[in-house]
Amino acid sequence: MNRLVVGCALVVLGVGACDSNGDSGASTPPIVGAPAAPGPAQGGTAAPAEPPPMVSGGSGAPGTGMAGAAVPVAGSVAAGGAGGQGAGMAGAGGNPDVPNPDEGWEMIITADWELPANQEAYYCQRLTLKEDLYFNAIRAVNPQGTHHTAFTVESNPTRPDGLSTCNSGGLAPQGIFGSGVGTDPVTYPEGVGMRLRAGQQLLLNLHVFNVTDQPLTGTSGTAVKKTTADKIQHVAESLLAGPALFSLPMGRTSVSGTCTMTHDVTLFAVQPHMHQTGVHMKGVAHSSSAGDVMVHDGPFEFENQIVYEIAPLQMNQGDVIDIECTFDNMTDGPIGFGESSNDEMCFMVLHRYPAAQNPSVTCFF
């Protein structure tokens, strides 16, 4: 398994108060595409379903709530990818990873925010495209304080453009890209990319967490490398797959589940996501074309969340992926599923093509 540089990317991803250059590279990725160990991996049986609503107000920072704590500042947006590079990208939090326009990166959406000390919050930036947009590489701008950025798209506008408070349930159906600390830019495989139409509404969902005793400001965003329509034969998508509504007792424990493919796809990358007590994730694909394939089996680091390239894997309608997450709960009580950095999640982001005709950003079970 290789670090994804060329040929691979929602959606809910985690960091603490580190910046997105916190990639330590400490872990050695395991080999991908090798046959799985004999016997199927354990997992749940539920098929893809609509996610349960996530109500803001989970555990959050000590003594604080979650939603409404962020103070939207400007909602700066570069419409259709024009301009915006480097503008307003500093602030108290700072943006050390601003994309370099000389390398072909163009900002397509940005959001300025301010967060009081010891607060955690969600907010959403919306922008309706004025022209068609084609791109074959994407990256996030994650200033200090980022827990995740989730970039999705609606077929038609659902709310007015601009910045507003929201929660993690505020995602559009089509998943494009999700990121946290250590998440590399993504260049899609040859002939694969994203095609967005004029009139569609971009949605940048942000989760920010200020663990300091001082106010924190930042500018989050998404940048792409544009291409032309003739270069995209297959439109990609990202699917968030994993169990929900679990509870972790004290000590080491695992949770698992199964995600079923609703149409024929090719997987080309996977992206583990857990929070601070996650220590290991395993994914086994049961392909009717290729047999049982271990798509990921390795340690997890909260501040080093990597996208892993895999050998292209054909998955047919009805094929399943088993996902297992292991946690080490060293707190003095149980930890539940939730959107806060102090809660937990168990998701494997599946990067695949072609996109579904009726997309869903999640495959919960």
Can you describe this structure?
By secondary structure, the protein is mostly beta strands. The protein has two domains: 2-33 and 57-227, no CATH class; 238-364, Jelly Rolls. The protein has strands at residues 2-3, 71-72, 106-115, 119-128, 133-141, 146-154, 162-165, 174-179, 186-187, 192-196, 201-210, 216-226, 234-235, 237-242, 247-248, 251-260, 265-273, 278-287, 291-299, 308-315, 320-329, 335-336, 347-353, 362-364. Strands 2, 3, 5, 9, 10, 12 and 13 form a seven-stranded mixed beta sheet that branches. Strands 1-20-17-23-14-24 form a six-stranded mixed beta sheet, with no helix packed on it. It has a five-stranded antiparallel beta sheet with strand order 7-4-11-6-8, with no helix packed on it. It is globular and about 50 Å long.
List the helices and strands and how they pair.
Elements: E1 2-3, E2 71-72, E3 106-115, E4 119-128, E5 133-141, E6 146-154, E7 162-165, E8 174-179, E9 186-187, E10 192-196, E11 201-210, E12 216-226, E13 234-235, E14 237-242, E15 247-248, E16 251-260, E17 265-273, E18 278-287, E19 291-299, E20 308-315, E21 320-329, E22 335-336, E23 347-353, E24 362-364
Parallel strand pairs: 10-13, 14-24
Antiparallel strand pairs: 1-20, 2-3, 3-12, 4-7, 4-11, 5-9, 5-10, 5-12, 6-8, 6-11, 14-23, 15-22, 16-21, 17-20, 17-23, 18-19, 18-21
Based on secondary structure, the structural category is mainly beta
The portion of residues assigned to helices is under 10%
What's the main sheet like?
Answer: 7 strands, mixed
Name the beta content range. Answer: 35-45%
Strands, total number: 24
Summed over residues and divided by their number, the pLDDT gives a mean of 76
Secondary-structure element order, N to C: EEEEEEEEEEEEEEEEEEEEEEEE
How far apart, in Å, are the first and last alpha carbons?
A: 27 Å
Count of individual helical segments: 0
Total domain modules: 2
